[in-house]
Design a protein that fits this description.
This protein has 446 residues and is mostly helical. Helices cover 68% and strands 2% of the residues. The chain has one domain.
């Protein structure tokens, strides 16, 4: 990996803007914790991400003007994002026209009450769902240099490594997390679920799910031992931090992502290591196995059925059954937007897909799933059919494909993709994957 950045053909302000974006997790933390508490000035900090997006589009405009053409490099993904936006808008229109009902949680028993979608909640719902896709549109069109992509990926890995190191420091220094972060008396031995600079163990786990497969893939396919060692050591730090979050969703997502990676790269050695790891887990990672199996115990299921996932998933399904086509309206059923705007009965549903089913109906969910799986399918086809297995782009595309699939799986247990840090990296990686697949295809046809 190296400390020094690769020499790029162009190191103008756009290049450094791209690096700033790649260090998003660190920059956001520094801004939030250094000036975020200052009156007036601190209130402007959340807008820095919009400033980054605006500057990226200005950079694309300047590049296109210099080249004499505007090429967005349109793909099926562009259309799918548009379809998701249309489905979200239709859910809002349905709410305004038909005035649907939602289930109020307290006091029990549940009661059906009207849920009115105001404009601010509607805009916030669309923003939370799709604002980060703006990175995809501009980066897919802006990036055309493999060296710059290498630098961006290295910067992302370095940032994740620093975040992981801080999480490990929390573990070693005896920091304790709130007791509410564990779900059972059986887990009283878990004093800390590391949260690092991210502030939440589940979000930190999601962040590790997105970066770890990339570091692993680059380690596996590196051509010299120095790079292989550096990427490998970083990957170990990231995996250890992921384990210390005690996030079941992150663990399952990571395993799912690496399983897909093993299939598309046809790596028999990795498959063997994975099987060996699963067999050895009960003996060398007892706490991990215990936390995973706890989810199937009567105690956990009883608690989950009372103000837990089972209860709130069931509530969301009931809401959907009453509004099956377009749902109750984006931002009206649960998770960050609904709770932020005090919607009736709003709570954490902890399943991105069930939540969207309730809010946007079957139309919204199907278009959303199509959008999420499009880059995974695109990357998997490119990697599986590639004849250039020794190249950087092959390793990168395989790692990103695994990371994206891992995130899709993790969101079955929580709407982690709504976290600012996670959704930013998710969409930036989608853009880099599309550019990487395009570059790999061009090299193969050259």
């Amino acid at each position: 990996m190296g400390v020094a950045l690769q020499k790029s053909r162009t190191r103008d302000w756009t290049y450094y803007l791209l690096l700033t974006l790649s260090f998003f997790s660190m920059v956001n933390y520094i801004l939030r914790d250094t000036i975020g508490h200052i009156p007036v000035i601190g209130s402007l900090v959340p807008a820095w991400k919009e400033l980054i997006i605006l500057l990226l589009y200005i950079a694309f405009y300047m590049k296109s003007k210099a080249e004499g053409r505007f090429d967005w490099k349109s793909s099926r993904m562009h259309k799918l994002i548009l379809f998701v936006a249309i489905a979200a808008v239709l859910s809002g229109v349905y709410n305004w026209v038909f005035d649907p009902e939602t289930l109020r949680i307290a006091p029990k028993p549940y009661t059906w009450v009207p849920v009115h979608l105001d404009l601010s909640t509607f805009v916030d719902g669309i923003r939370t769902l799709l604002e980060a896709s703006l990175y995809f549109f501009v980066l897919n069109a802006l990036l055309d240099d493999e060296d710059t992509i290498k630098d961006m990926i290295n910067a992302m890995i370095i940032a994740a490594f620093l975040v992981a190191c801080y999480g490990i420091y929390q573990k070693l220094s005896g920091v304790e997390s709130p007791k509410s972060w564990v779900y059972s008396e059986q887990e009283s031995n878990i004093k800390l679920r590391v949260f690092s600079t991210i502030g939440n163990p589940n979000a930190l786990g999601g962040y590790m799910v997105l970066i770890t497969p990339i570091a692993l893939s680059l380690a596996i396919h590196a051509k010299d031992w120095l790079k292989r060692s550096l990427y490998g050591i970083v990957a170990l730090f990231l995996m250890y931090t992921m384990v210390m979050t005690y996030s079941r969703g992150a663990w399952i997502g990571f395993v799912a992502g690496m399983a897909l990676y093993t299939v598309i790269t046809r790596n028999k050695w990795l498959a063997g290591i994975g099987i060996l790891g699963l067999v050895a887990a009960p003996f060398v990672a007892h706490d991990v196995v215990s936390r995973l199996t706890l989810a199937f115990t009567p105690e956990y299921l009883a608690k989950s059925a009372n103000k837990g996932r089972v209860e709130f998933w069931g509530r969301a399904i009931k809401i959907w059954l009453k509004n099956p086509v377009f749902g109750t309206g984006i931002g009206t059923a649960g998770d960050s937007v609904a709770t932020r705007h005090n919607m009736p009965g709003a709570t954490w549903i902890d399943n991105q897909y069930v939540k969207l089913l309730a809010e946007t109906g079957i139309v919204g969910l199907l278009t959303y799933l199509a959008m999420l799986f499009a880059p995974v399918i695109n990357g998997a086809k490119s990697v599986f059919g590639s004849k250039q297995k020794g190249t950087y782009l092959y390793a990168l595309n395989a790692g990103i494909t695994a990371a994206l699939f891992g995130m899709i799986v993790e969101n079955v247990t929580a709407a982690i993709i709504e976290d600012l840090n996670v959704t930013t990296h998710f969409w930036v990686l989608i853009a880099i994957l599309y550019v990487g697949v395009r570059m790999a295809r061009e090299k193969a046809n050259a």
